[in-house]
Amino acid sequence: MNKSSKLHMKTDEFKKQGYKVIDWLADYYEHVEEYPVLSQVEPGDIRSKLPEKAPNTGRAHDEILNDMNILMPGITHWQSPNFHAFFPCATSGPAILGDLISTGLGVNGMSWATSPACTELETHILDWLVDMMDLPVKFKSNSKGGGVIQDTASSASLVALLCSREKASNGRTNENGSNGDFIAYTSSQAHSSIEKAVKIAGIGKNNMRMVDVDQNFSMDSSHLRQLIEKDISNGLKPIFVCATVGTTSSTAIDPVNEIGKICKEFGIWLHVDAAMAGPAALCKEYRFINDGLNYADSYNFNPHKWMLTSFDCSIFYVADRSQLINTMSILPEYLKNKTSTSESVFDLRDWGIPLGRRFRALKLWHVINYYGVSGLQEFIRTHMENTKILRSWIEMEKDFEIVTPTPLTLICFRHTKGNNFTEKLLNTINESGKAYMTHTKLNDQYIIRFSVGQTSTTIDHLKETWNYIVKTSKGMIEA
Ligand code: PLP
After folding, report:
1. 87 in ligand 1 pocket by Cβ < 6 Å?
2. 10-residue block means of pLDDT along the chain (479 residues)?
3. CA 283 → CA 101, 119, 377, 391, distances in Å?
4. CA 274 to ligand 1 center in whole angstroms
5. The model scores a pTM over 0.85
6. CATH (residue range 11-90)
7. Which of 18, 30, 56, 126 would you label with 426, given CA atoms 20 to 30 Å apart?
């Protein structure tokens, strides 16, 4: 804020408008259930209401705040308790406030020296998380490994793949490019970001093998072995396997233990993507999702999905940080400083793709300290228990069938009248604005994904939505 300049916002105005913004947000959360969950606007509706040209003279901040009235119809309410689409982006009061301070400080934590607290808090919290979730200690900063916050799981997978590429070529690919014989493997149920990473990393889509899945949509490790052996016998080099714990379509869990043994045998980098599922390990009884992580070279999960932390915040661990740093490090003259060539600090710009880094650890600090471990466990347990109850209601309804196991909080179901009916039912619910769910296709069946995990979703919300789904389906049959 500025005390004298006419150009900038003065401290008093900043305070006054800042309080208004917080009031606006608090009011939004009070009433979030009243909005249609899925935005009902047509393409171009919002733009058509925006001025054609930027204002030449600045406007009062009150007016700018009022512009939210134009934008709100074009907002899909991810924080609504009736948001059950994709996976959640469950945020919370402390996360929003931590993020606000981070934005307010406006620091760029590219190196330790550009804000030591930014780097040290991040490393410290990620060490905490290893203990909180009983992850392998090799991921801790006092071992050979370490953790870093990436923006998204997609970036984490890309970084892991790049590390595997450099490891396999002894750093030569960064110098000379890929010679096209590296092969990456993942299951046909893995997230699309893996295919994207394979393209970006120059491995090439044709050098990506989609491993078959079993009847529960988990990777078939014997097929993985067959593919690897075939590629080796053809003179190719398997370098990377991505296993998924909690696939996007159905939260299927790949057999990481078996996959890990195969990776170890053939010297292949194993990345484990647990973008949604990871936080479940906060609770002892769900630590089965950590099985096999002792084999993982890298691991990722998203507090921005299911750990009350505002988007974006994705945790990425490596078992050997030298592989990561060797892959990502670059040190032009203008970034050199007293500590940049010393071993005493981490420069986190060498742990990911962008140079500049937001102070994301601050929102995580607010969340973990505000809720405490037990509060976070209660959050996870409540969703797990509510999902079981919802599943039992669906099972009791003879016109619906559940089509996959429910290891976590995603229920995949369909109407017995088949694909077209199920699709129409989903569209009708979403267009009503009462709830928002998305779909997938498994074995050519159109399936509704009901994802539980929003911060304020209670069993009453689930009951109301489920009753509405049943009532709508009956109405559609009678019509
Ligand atoms: N991996 C899995 C298993 C996912 O379900 C998702 C998104 O839902 C992603 C990766 C991509 O997440 P992000 O948006 O953080 O890149």
Report:
1. yes
2. 81 96 98 97 98 97 98 98 98 98 97 95 98 98 96 96 92 77 96 94 92 97 98 96 98 98 98 98 98 98 98 97 92 79 86 96 98 98 98 97 97 98 98 97 97 97 98 94
3. 30, 27, 6, 21
4. 8
5. yes
6. 1.20.1340.10
7. 30
